[in-house]
Amino acid sequence: MPFQRYVEVGRVVIINYGKEYGKLYVITDVVDQNRALIDRPDEVRRVENFKRLQLTDFKIDIPKLAKKKALKEALESNDVFSKFEKSAWGQKLSARVSKATTTDFQRYQWSVAKTKKSQAVKKELKKLQKSES
What we know:
By secondary structure, the chain is of the alpha+beta class. It has helices at about 70-80, 80-85, 90-100, 105-130, and strands at about 10-15, 25-30, 35-40, 45-50, 55-60.
Protein backbone atom coordinates (compact mmCIF):
# COMPACT_ATOMS: atom_id res chain seq x y z
CA MET A 1 0.00 0.00 0.00
CA PRO A 2 1.47 3.40 -0.93
CA PHE A 3 2.26 6.06 1.63
CA GLN A 4 -0.85 8.11 2.48
CA ARG A 5 0.30 10.82 4.88
CA TYR A 6 2.15 13.61 3.08
CA VAL A 7 3.53 16.85 4.46
CA GLU A 8 1.19 19.37 2.87
CA VAL A 9 -0.75 22.50 3.66
CA GLY A 10 -3.84 21.56 5.63
CA ARG A 11 -2.44 18.33 7.11
CA VAL A 12 -3.34 17.91 10.76
CA VAL A 13 -0.32 17.03 12.90
CA ILE A 14 0.24 16.15 16.52
CA ILE A 15 3.15 17.36 18.63
CA ASN A 16 5.20 14.40 19.87
CA TYR A 17 7.65 16.16 22.19
CA GLY A 18 7.73 18.97 24.72
CA LYS A 19 5.14 20.74 26.81
CA GLU A 20 2.61 20.73 23.94
CA TYR A 21 2.79 16.93 23.68
CA GLY A 22 -0.44 15.54 22.28
CA LYS A 23 -1.83 18.83 20.92
CA LEU A 24 -3.23 18.97 17.40
CA TYR A 25 -2.05 21.61 14.93
CA VAL A 26 -2.48 22.26 11.22
CA ILE A 27 0.35 22.82 8.74
CA THR A 28 -0.25 26.20 7.10
CA ASP A 29 3.01 26.40 5.16
CA VAL A 30 6.15 24.37 4.56
CA VAL A 31 9.23 26.50 5.32
CA ASP A 32 11.91 24.09 4.10
CA GLN A 33 12.68 20.38 4.16
CA ASN A 34 13.01 20.35 7.95
CA ARG A 35 10.42 22.84 9.21
CA ALA A 36 6.78 23.78 8.80
CA LEU A 37 4.61 26.68 9.89
CA ILE A 38 1.92 25.25 12.15
CA ASP A 39 -1.19 26.91 13.50
CA ARG A 40 -4.07 26.30 15.86
CA PRO A 41 -7.13 28.54 16.33
CA ASP A 42 -6.39 29.45 19.96
CA GLU A 43 -2.59 29.80 19.71
CA VAL A 44 0.05 31.85 17.92
CA ARG A 45 1.34 30.56 14.59
CA ARG A 46 4.91 29.25 14.80
CA VAL A 47 7.61 27.29 12.99
CA GLU A 48 8.19 23.72 14.19
CA ASN A 49 10.68 21.05 13.17
CA PHE A 50 9.29 17.92 11.47
CA LYS A 51 11.04 15.77 14.08
CA ARG A 52 8.57 17.09 16.67
CA LEU A 53 5.51 16.47 14.48
CA GLN A 54 3.58 13.32 13.65
CA LEU A 55 1.29 13.37 10.64
CA THR A 56 -2.29 12.22 11.14
CA ASP A 57 -4.74 10.87 8.57
CA PHE A 58 -6.78 14.08 8.71
CA LYS A 59 -6.43 16.86 6.15
CA ILE A 60 -8.49 20.02 5.75
CA ASP A 61 -8.76 22.22 2.69
CA ILE A 62 -7.24 25.60 3.52
CA PRO A 63 -5.17 27.99 1.43
CA LYS A 64 -1.49 28.52 2.09
CA LEU A 65 -0.96 30.87 5.06
CA ALA A 66 -4.67 30.83 5.89
CA LYS A 67 -6.03 33.39 8.30
CA LYS A 68 -7.28 32.33 11.73
CA LYS A 69 -10.91 32.78 10.70
CA ALA A 70 -10.57 30.47 7.68
CA LEU A 71 -8.64 27.92 9.74
CA LYS A 72 -11.25 27.92 12.50
CA GLU A 73 -14.12 27.52 10.01
CA ALA A 74 -12.38 24.64 8.23
CA LEU A 75 -11.65 22.85 11.51
CA GLU A 76 -15.23 23.27 12.73
CA SER A 77 -16.81 22.21 9.44
CA ASN A 78 -14.68 19.05 9.27
CA ASP A 79 -14.98 18.41 13.03
CA VAL A 80 -11.33 17.33 13.12
CA PHE A 81 -10.67 17.50 16.87
CA SER A 82 -13.63 15.31 17.83
CA LYS A 83 -12.86 12.83 15.00
CA PHE A 84 -9.32 12.53 16.33
CA GLU A 85 -10.55 11.96 19.89
CA LYS A 86 -12.76 9.12 18.63
CA SER A 87 -9.90 7.49 16.72
CA ALA A 88 -7.77 4.76 18.29
CA TRP A 89 -4.79 7.12 18.47
CA GLY A 90 -6.79 9.79 20.29
CA GLN A 91 -8.27 7.26 22.71
CA LYS A 92 -4.79 5.93 23.47
CA LEU A 93 -3.52 9.44 24.23
CA SER A 94 -6.49 10.25 26.48
CA ALA A 95 -6.06 6.93 28.32
CA ARG A 96 -2.39 7.74 28.87
CA VAL A 97 -3.28 11.17 30.27
CA SER A 98 -5.97 9.78 32.57
CA LYS A 99 -3.62 7.07 33.83
CA ALA A 100 -0.92 9.65 34.53
CA THR A 101 -3.32 11.71 36.65
CA THR A 102 -4.38 8.82 38.89
CA THR A 103 -3.34 8.55 42.52
CA ASP A 104 -1.58 5.65 44.21
CA PHE A 105 -4.80 4.58 45.87
CA GLN A 106 -6.69 4.46 42.56
CA ARG A 107 -3.94 2.31 41.04
CA TYR A 108 -4.13 0.03 44.09
CA GLN A 109 -7.92 -0.27 43.67
CA TRP A 110 -7.48 -1.19 40.00
CA SER A 111 -4.90 -3.81 40.95
CA VAL A 112 -7.21 -5.37 43.55
CA ALA A 113 -10.13 -5.38 41.10
CA LYS A 114 -7.97 -7.02 38.43
CA THR A 115 -6.87 -9.72 40.89
CA LYS A 116 -10.46 -10.44 41.96
CA LYS A 117 -11.58 -10.64 38.34
CA SER A 118 -8.81 -13.06 37.39
CA GLN A 119 -9.61 -15.24 40.43
CA ALA A 120 -13.29 -15.36 39.44
CA VAL A 121 -12.38 -16.28 35.85
CA LYS A 122 -10.08 -19.06 37.05
CA LYS A 123 -12.78 -20.40 39.36
CA GLU A 124 -15.36 -20.53 36.53
CA LEU A 125 -12.83 -22.12 34.18
CA LYS A 126 -12.11 -24.88 36.71
CA LYS A 127 -15.85 -25.50 37.10
CA LEU A 128 -16.26 -25.83 33.34
CA GLN A 129 -13.26 -28.13 33.04
CA LYS A 130 -14.51 -30.29 35.92
CA SER A 131 -18.01 -30.58 34.42
CA GLU A 132 -16.62 -31.63 31.01
CA SER A 133 -14.53 -34.48 32.40
